[in-house]
Amino acid sequence: MDFYYSPASAPCRAVLMTAQCVGIELNKKMLDLRAGEHLKPEFLKINPQHTIPTLVDKDFAVWESRAIMIYLVEQYAKTDSLYSKCAETRALINQRLYFDMNFSMIFGRYIYVPLTTGTPFDPEQFKKLETDLQLLNTLLAGNNFAVGNSLSLADLSLLATISTIDVCSTVKGANIDIKKYANIKKWYENMKAVAPGYKANYEGCLEFKKYFDAK
Predict the structure, then answer these.
(1) Which of 56, 75, 192, 207 suits 213 as a labelling partner, its CA being 20 to 30 A distant?
(2) 117 burial class (0-12, 13-18, 19+ CB within 10 angstroms)?
(3) Residue 196: DSSP 8-state
(4) Residue 150: predicted pLDDT
């Protein structure tokens, strides 16, 4: 399977952690978005939306990280531990995945605009980010995992986002500190210990941070 990605991308890293959990090897093809490699005709034939991550499995192509994660589990996982067949549990996993989709977009709006334009951080976007952090903190109350008592796709998707937010805590002016959210902090420490691929994920986070250091 060909996997078009960037290590600095949280959604791409969520897929890579999923692949490791499932026990499959992806043929990684890194795209340099700043160089416009995602806009080349050969990639547009695969993904007209020209986004990463994108997975190509034989003659089948799919993009959007959470769709890819679910595909990998349903197609190749030997158990349903990451994506339960129980309707109620799966509904909660889906809810957390959809939450993370919006959550990561809010974080992106807050962090990418200063990164790309050199403008100050927007306090209104920061309020929205804080609102989602507080909600996630509530959802994780009393839990070591995002859903139930074991690792799921919800954890992997959220972990990619939270670890990226974490490395931005040292960025001047960002004022981000996930450590003040006790339930997130506890969950995050657990994820560091139990999530396969966490080390590689964090190395990708540091690649993301290099963009800020370069600015």
Answers:
(1) 192
(2) exposed
(3) T
(4) 96
DSSP for 64-126 reads SHHHHHHHHHHHH-SSSSSS-SSHHHHHHHHHHHHHHHHHHHHHHHHHHHHHHH-PPPPHHHH
| Catalytic residue set | 9
pTM for this predicted structure: 0.95
Q: Maximum Cα–Cα distance for the chain, whole Å? A: 49
Q: What is the dihedral of CA 98, 100, 102, 108, to 10 degrees?
A: -150
What pLDDT is attached to residue 215? 64
Helix axes 65-76, 153-167, angle to 10 degrees: 140
Q: Is 28 exposed, middle or buried (0-12, 13-18, 19+ CB in 10 A)?
A: middle
